[in-house]
Amino acid sequence: MDATPSPSSSSPFDMVSSALGQYIPRGAAAEAAGSAVSQGDRAARQHVPANPAPGRQEQILGAVNLDRDLRITRCNLDAPVFAGLDAATGCSFVDLLPPGDVPTVTRRLRQVLETGEPHVARVQRLRRGDGSELVVSMSILAAAAPQEGLTVTLIAMARRLHLYAAETAIGTSLDIGETAQSLAESLLAWGDVAAIDLDFAVWTGEGVAGQRHGRVRLRRAALVPDRVWPDGYVTPGDDLPGDASRLLSLAIRRDDAAQAIVIPDREAIERVLGSPRLVRALVPGDGAAAVACIPLVLDGTPPVVLGVAEVWRRADRPFGDSELLDLQELVARTSHHVDLARQHQREHTQVLALQRRLLPRTGGDTIETASVYQPATPDSAGVGGDWVNSFPLPDGRTALVVGDVVGHGLGAAATMGQLSMEARALLSAGLAPDEVLEHLDETVTLLDDADSGLAAGYSALGSTCCIAVYDPVSHRVALSSAGHLPPVLVPPGGPAGPLAVRPHPGLGTEFALREPFDVQAFAAPPGSLLALYTDGLVEDPSVSIDEGIGRLADAVSAVHPWDALPQAARGLVSALAPVRRRDDVTLLLARMIGYRKGDTATWRLPARDDAAARARTVVSALLGRWHTRADTRDKVVLVVDELVANAVRFAGGPLTVRLIRTGHGLLCEVGDTGNGRPRLGRSELLDDSGRGLQVVHRLTTRWGVRWTETGKVVWAAFGT
Question: Where are the stretches annotated Disordered (predicted)?
Fold first, then answer.
């Protein structure tokens, strides 16, 4: 066919063909065109010509058009470098491939046909008629309308061009598995099978010492081509047998310098490996007769060996000296990419471990929770500062916390962990949600000072947080927010919608006039569903934020009361999260259960001298109706007597006594209007002050204080 179509053509095929003509001088163009006419002369095309004469510009570009059945409809492979490729019209394109590459390349061709997304610049081998192979850089494009099918462009890979293209492709990912896979695919240009085996410490992201003694554990990180391997053969993700790891590590580490080795024939390979089991595990097939092992070395003093690359060949293709130099050069150029991926893997593992540690474990008896966290991207650069937590408070309530720390990576993860743990500690100590946010606001301001030490060069100003505390007795939620999007509440049988939370700037925003945080209370009857989330779930460039929150409210309303929350949470994220996420997605669902009415009792008593006696009477009668054990009943009555007596003595005002029967014991609370904190101290033998708290401390499993708008509540827990 004619290699120089008319300039009016606009298809990718014609554009490439037009460009090809610019690479051939006028005389050569006619010669190439004439050779293309005689496509039936296959013998002439089997011979691979010598290098072009000096001064002549060598054509290295070619193009092939395919129909939807992957058969060739047009081609421009008439340059001398492509001689020997049997690319006749009507033939299947995969016939040009080595048999082991057919499944992988076919899958890529079909993928471009289905999605239209190009597959660009991957190193590929093509078979010539004489059995030799040509290494090309292959790109797969969807054919331009009105044509159908594919356009495959081929660039013949000269040595320097191949090294450059391979290094560029290997450095495009920070995932250690993808990096190893790219390196293996590039090495395939020199052999039939390529494998990358990494030190296990490199694979997991740990540090690797320069001088390592003893056994080295190797794990297979990549293997090409992609095909079904026999049983017993080591494939990606598998550890190499201990004997194989020892042999490979000894082979590449001679004295103080790592060296490449070549085992030239099958007999030598079997002699070195020493057992049929190792041969089955390491040798890819009966045709493999030679292997080159090239260490992945990180320059330093001493040098650090990260692993070993292995390239296998057939018996009729021995390794030449120049090829070994090329292999060593490529591996040396790309070893630092493997180390960068190792460092990234370590950071990724650390951040994800912290992120998952903060995820809720269980909701308790009075509330059911489920959470979903999805990073924006699978690498650690996409693991950001979103965090969510739910935990029971010592006084029987449950805290629900969600936050979004500015930024990504370890700086954001460290700040996220500190804020989360601080919030948990303060809530467990009895502080109200607004007081907790005030402390977090101060913490973020301190962390923004680079001299304070945690995150020099990183600013967390503007981070957001929302804290909700659920009281299972009153069935109410106390909520406070710092710049966070409003939670969505779905009451049983009622309309769903975002809670009317007063907006407040984010944490550490000094430009705000230091406005106090508000606490707002909402009714949450049993069966209510509360959704806390981060902006990544509802932010979509195609819709407004209010519309995104409305979509979330509609989706949460559709959750059936009998639906399992974990599956419901995953379904909500799958349905609502933007396809192209720019931020992490976090969702916490909480279904309110609360205590049954018969498991709680509340009494209001005046602060008089007879208050303790009245409290003993009503509490003892209730415990009798609950059939509480006698020893437990005596402890509870005595503790209630001491707490009420202390409240009358030191606080005054009306008192509230509340008794709760939990799934694990009993909980009693005494509320008053005082703001002093009861403290447990050492009392002398004749000192009457403080003896009441000593009794409470000895008879309960746990006790504490929380503050309310009108005073405080002292609570005490008992086991059964």
Answer: 35-55
